[in-house]
Amino acid sequence: MATEYPHRIALLGLGTIGLSMLAMHLRRPDTSITVYDPRPNYESQIRSTLPSLLDCPESTTLIDDLLRKSRLKLATTVAEAIQNATIIQEQSPEVTASKQALWKEVAGLAGPDVHLWSSSSGISASVQASGCEAADRVAERLLVAHPFNPPHLMPLIEIVPGPETNPDRIEFVRKYFGDVPGPGVSGGSQSASQHYRPITLHKEIPGFVGNRLAFALLREACYLVGEGVVSAKDLDSLVTASLGPRWAGSGVFESYHAGGGEGGIGAFLQKLTPTIQDVWGELGQIDIQGEQTWKDMVVKQTEDAYGPYTPETRKKKEEMLRDVVELQKKKWGEL
């Protein structure tokens, strides 16, 4: 088993992210994955969801085949899940105390050389490890490997080490995700260009970078709708008709570097200094925990515009994401 599957992964937590991560890990032919979730019905969720994530929606034998070949194992306890694991990845709820308790339990059961990864979207590795004993070496082995939803499609892996994380652990996770084949690539072969694009943050910061950028845009979007400047539907149309396509090909800094002409981003910032400063000074300040008139408007307008989020909608949006990512690779190679 160790020779056939050198990467033996324990996935703790099989919600939306966990199931998508399971599909991602299974695309590597050198992995076996043991999963654990405290919910009693998690096996039925795997059986109903995983085939479509692995591009086999009509298969009635896929899960049984994976179980028979020991590529997939279903555990009933944390201890069972992490037995013989070389990588432990958690997708537990975004509650600091829960993650600290989980790593404390894991530290008492796992081997001393096991890689410890968190899929947290905002809780740092140092905070998660703070409840563990120094002798367990959790802080030097733990890092955040934050995927964007859905990770079986989205190329980003945001690697956020703690101040005590061993550099070798960082290099290992970068190589691991860099070698995961993209969706639709069979037999473990790689596509023409690398699908997953791991980036490493140089220091910890709440929310990391991806969500800080996303939440900054969300805050201003909520403010603009709440102030009656624009409708939720039209704001979305603005993003998909301008910022979205541009950022899919260039990103923030490269876009404004091009916007400055021959002088690049330096010229852009200089030419638009008054306008930029006026806008920055007027950005909306809203409180999600306080008065929420804006929230009622955002929720109502969004629900009126789009209705419930159905499986058909999810499938359509995932197909579009696939097309965008493949177009990036086809036109530009590794971005």
TrEMBL record:
GO BP field: fatty acid metabolic process
Listed InterPro entries: 3-OHacyl-CoA_DH, 3-OHacyl-CoA_DH_CS, 3-OHacyl-CoA_DH_NAD-bd, 3HC_DH_C, 6-PGluconate_DH-like_C_sf, 6PGD_dom2, NAD(P)-bd_dom_sf
Domain 3-hydroxyacyl-CoA dehydrogenase NAD binding: start-end pairs: 9-177
Enzyme Commission identifier(s): 1.1.1.45
Domain 3-hydroxyacyl-CoA dehydrogenase C-terminal per the UniProt entry, residue ranges: 207-267
Keyword Transit peptide: no
Keyword flag Oxidoreductase: yes
Compartmental location: Cytoplasm
Origin superkingdom: Eukaryota
Annotated keywords: Cytoplasm, NAD, Oxidoreductase, Phosphoprotein
Signal peptide interval: none
Binding partners and assembly: Homodimer.
Protein name: L-gulonate 3-dehydrogenase
Organism from which the protein derives: Penicillium desertorum
